[in-house]
From TrEMBL:
<dbReference type="Pfam" id="PF02781">
    <property type="entry name" value="G6PD_C"/>
</dbReference>
<dbReference type="InterPro" id="IPR022674">
    <property type="entry name" value="G6P_DH_NAD-bd"/>
</dbReference>
<dbReference type="GO" id="GO:0005829">
    <property type="term" value="C:cytosol"/>
</dbReference>
<dbReference type="InterPro" id="IPR036291">
    <property type="entry name" value="NAD(P)-bd_dom_sf"/>
</dbReference>
<feature type="binding site">
    <location>
        <position position="142"/>
    </location>
    <ligand>
        <name>NADP(+)</name>
    </ligand>
</feature>
<comment type="pathway">
    <text>Carbohydrate degradation; pentose phosphate pathway; D-ribulose 5-phosphate from D-glucose 6-phosphate (oxidative stage): step 1/3.</text>
</comment>
<feature type="binding site">
    <location>
        <position position="176"/>
    </location>
    <ligand>
        <name>substrate</name>
    </ligand>
</feature>
<dbReference type="GO" id="GO:0009051">
    <property type="term" value="P:pentose-phosphate shunt, oxidative branch"/>
</dbReference>
<comment type="function">
    <text>Catalyzes the oxidation of glucose 6-phosphate to 6-phosphogluconolactone.</text>
</comment>
<dbReference type="GO" id="GO:0004345">
    <property type="term" value="F:glucose-6-phosphate dehydrogenase activity"/>
</dbReference>
<feature type="binding site">
    <location>
        <position position="229"/>
    </location>
    <ligand>
        <name>substrate</name>
    </ligand>
</feature>
<feature type="binding site">
    <location>
        <position position="210"/>
    </location>
    <ligand>
        <name>substrate</name>
    </ligand>
</feature>
<keyword id="KW-0521">NADP</keyword>
<dbReference type="InterPro" id="IPR022675">
    <property type="entry name" value="G6P_DH_C"/>
</dbReference>
<keyword id="KW-0119">Carbohydrate metabolism</keyword>
<keyword id="KW-0313">Glucose metabolism</keyword>
<dbReference type="GO" id="GO:0006006">
    <property type="term" value="P:glucose metabolic process"/>
</dbReference>
Length: 488
């Protein structure tokens, strides 16, 4: 990794992602003095705009979406880096203006915060004006495709001009502190490293619940659904990190090779097992956090016939030696009672009961990794209740060993995922970015499920906004005498 100056070219700098996430993250990196002093930031959009107006726009965004109070020193430093270039991204001729803003002697990072449908145009335009060479890095946002075939088309368009070593595909979950901590927990602690398989683990639950609905994005969301929006990327990336074999090093390809093997080992879900393995739901009107919200089909711009799912529960199986017989239950939905993402590892029960009839069903140990919010790690253990009893028997109680990040690291701010990812791109480290074969393998698995749903022609099950999804989601686990972990 190298801490060197670069020209950071942000395509789509006036768009939602840039405004809400990327510019505030650059500001935070500036504040932490993690951007090389000589790095420049070139905002690119198709509107004609004077630099001073762009600067005013960036500042207004930072005030709206960043720190409540702007640090003026930081802002002055950030402002001095800003350039603005007006490019019509579909017009090859218009890219030459970039030559005035970038230095060919330095690394250029092109962040495409634009719709994927124009990734190909941008790559062609960059190529056309001859400012790219093998040192250029190109950063791609999701969604990369709608299915395997369309993702291949996008990947091909980009591959025409850039080598895989130059391509950084974002899955912002990989930049979350607690997702990165999965690697630390698993491989820096022998108690976990040695108990992480079918001998010790009964099953795994991965839940990513959101209280928000589709936030005015009907057009995009209805086309995607929760499967493409959340499972194909974020949930499968978490699953891969939880299930992968130890990589030899933390190098980009060591990690990505291991994640890919997990994705390849996922048992296909198709028409033969779809009803046993998946549940999909769509929210109806209800109350979330005390506020009345409309149903999915009543959202602004809704097509009232839509069968798009806003909730999914899946029983996934990984057909390899480590995970034989250990289901991974995935669950994600919009308009759930609260925003909570967690991984819960259920260990196997004790083989024999020493504690008498009242403790016939000793609960299993659980390792709860709270990804967000209230980040932390918790282990449930059975503990003797202190004190004496007339019968002399032992009274047991379930207790928690709890590591809460907000207490343990009270002085440390948890950075936004994009801060980490932007930093890694500038450093030239691909470990937290998704390789082409991973994306395509994930699509292969997801496509088969989508296809099976389509041919079953069944609508998603309704669930009321503000609940944990359709009742069948409970049934998915209850069939095996299991139940979803209930966080506080
Ligand atoms: C995005 C999805 O990728 O992730 C959104 O498109 C979703 O629909 C978001 O709300 C969730 O991200 P986070 O970081 O808020 O958990």
């Amino acid at each position: 990794n190298s801490y060197e100056p670069c020209d950071f070219v942000l395509f789509g700098t006036l768009g939602d992602l840039s405004r809400r996430k990327l510019l505030p993250s650059l500001y935070q990196l500036e504040k932490a003095e993690l951007i090389h002093p000589d790095t420049t930031i070139v905002g690119v959009a198709r509107h004609e705009m004077e630099l001073e107006d762009y600067i005013a726009e960036v500042r207004a965004n930072l005030v709206k979406f960043g720190d409540k109070e702007l640090c003026e020193d930081t802002w002055e430093r950030l402002k001095a880096r800003l350039h603005y270039a007006c490019v019509d991204m579909k017009d090859i001729g218009s890219y030459c203006v970039l030559e005035d803003h970038v230095d060919p002697a330095r690394t250029m990072v092109c962040y495409l915060a634009t719709p994927p449908s124009i990734y190909g145009d941008i790559c062609r335009g960059l190529h056309g004006c001859k400012i790219i060479d093998s040192s250029v890095r190109v950063v791609l946002e999701k969604p990369i495709g709608h299915d395997l075939e369309s993702s291949k088309v996008i990947n091909e368009q980009v591959a025409e001009y850039f080598d895989e070593k130059q391509i950084y595909r974002i899955d912002h979950y990989l930049g979350k502190e607690t997702v990165l901590n999965l690697v630390a927990l698993r491989f820096a602690n022998s108690i976990f490293a040695t108990n992480w398989d079918h001998n010790c683990i009964d099953h795994v639950q991965i839940s990513v619940a959101e209280s928000v609905g589709i936030e005015g994005r009907w057009g995009y969301f209805d086309d995607a659904g929760q499967m493409r929006d959340m499972v194909q990327n974020h949930l499968l990336q978490i699953l891969s990190l939880v299930a992968m074999e130890p990589p030899t090093t933390l190098d980009a390809d060591s990690i990505r090779d291991e994640k890919l093997k997990v994705l390849k080992a996922l048992r296909p879900i198709n028409s033969s097992n779809i009803s046993d393995s998946t549940v999909r739901g769509q929210y109806t009107a209800g109350f979330v956090k005390g506020e009345e919200v409309p149903g999915y089909l009543e959202e602004e711009g809704a097509n009232t016939q839509s069968k798009t799912e806003t909730f999914i529960a899946i029983k996934a199986e990984i057909d390899n030696w480590r995970w034989a017989g250990v289901p991974f239950y995935l669950r994600t939905g919009k308009r759930m009672p609260s925003k909570v993402s967690e991984v819960v590892i259920y260990f196997k029960r004790q083989p024999h009961n020493l504690f008498g009839d009242s403790f016939k069903n000793l609960p299993p140990n659980k390792l709860v990794i709270r990804l967000q919010p209230d980040e932390g790690v918790e282990i449930t253990v059975m503990n003797k209740v202190p004190g004496l009893t007339s019968s002399g028997s032992m009274d047991l109680q379930k207790s928690k060993l709890n590591l809460s990040f907000s207490e343990a690291f009270a002085d440390d701010r948890i950075p936004d995922a994009y801060e980490k990812l932007l930093l890694e791109v500038m450093l030239g480290n691909q470990a937290l970015f998704v390789r082409r074969d991973e994306i395509e393998q994930a699509w292969t698995w997801v496509d088969s499920i989508l296809e099976a749903w389509k041919s079953s022609n069944e609508p998603p099950e309704p669930y009321q906004a503000g609940t944990w999804g359709p009742v069948d989601s409970i049934g998915l686990l209850a069939r095996a005498n299991r139940s979803w972990y209930e966080s506080k």
